[in-house]
């Protein structure tokens, strides 16, 4: 197999090998599969080649947790469904992340901790800073150090609930790095920093949302336990907002480049939420 363009993919039935950026991921849903006599989770999205060409794509089952918006992926074996006008990976295909993969952050930190290389996120920042080379985990090291600094700043101010530095760092990791609320929660717990997924989500929702006159739900968050294995998190939190602006600006405490601007943290009420669930979060739902 060899890489094909999106226009070429339309004329092929199987054995399609494509590459592109994931965009417009929708909320996943469980659908009944007759031949399996079971439900399977599917998530619709779009794949763009960066040149204005777009193709519809569907991710199934465990593949959903491997991808996210803005992630560049390579699919080794896909099939085009001409009836439903959608591309999907076959059971023989693989999804390969091209370049930086945010999913590797957790494993990298945990590995260094288990090898007694680091004892805190501040140690992690210093460790990465001293490593030779300009690339780390397939990302420009200066840019990766911003991620490390964000984690170190959360570590430093985590005990202060209403803190602009923590809020901005969480926004950065969630919006810019596209880590899910569970992933941020899981990474922080490596060094026993317990920030609930609910707080993470509250910090990622822009304060401008309070200006709208939208419906306010009384119980916007629902955390359910679906796995008895501690610390097991498979799927992302899903939160739907009608038209919420996003922000990834970092305050000067986090940004490596000096900045004169900072964002004040404003407690917000969660509005416009139609669906929000944390899947497979074992243990205390408050943590």
Descriptive overview:
With 287 residues, the protein is α+β, with helices and mostly antiparallel strands. The protein has two domains: 6-97, OB fold (Dihydrolipoamide Acetyltransferase, E2P) (Beta Barrel); 104-278, no CATH class. It is 25% helix and 21% strand. It contains seven helices and twelve strands. It has helices at residues 6-9, 104-114, 121-130, 141-157, 164-176, 181-188, 197-204; strands spanning 16-23, 29-33, 38-48, 54-60, 72-81, 86-89, 95-97, 135-136, 139-140, 222-223, 238-239, 276-278. It has a five-stranded mixed barrel. The chain has a three-stranded mixed beta sheet with strand order 10-12-11, with no helix packed on it. It has a two-stranded antiparallel ribbon with strand order 8-9. Helix 6 packs across helix 7 (197-204). The protein is globular and about 55 Å long.
Which terms would index this structure?
disordered C terminus; 25% helix; 287 residues; OB fold (Dihydrolipoamide Acetyltransferase, E2P); five-stranded mixed β-barrel; 12 strands
SSE run: HEEEEEEEHHEEHHHHEEE
Number of strands: 12
Helix content, binned percent? 10-25%
Shape: globular
Give the strand line-up of the largest sheet. 1-3-4-6-5
User: Between the first and last Cα atoms, what is the distance in angstroms?
Assistant: 46 Å
Radius of gyration: 20 Å
Give the DSSP E fraction (strand runs of 2 or more residues): 15-25%
Low-confidence stretches: 207-249, 251-286
Q: Which structural class should the secondary elements be placed in?
A: alpha+beta
Q: Total number of helical segments? A: 7
Q: Whole-number average pLDDT?
A: 75
Q: Provide the number of structural domains.
A: 2
Largest sheet: 5 strands, mixed, barrel
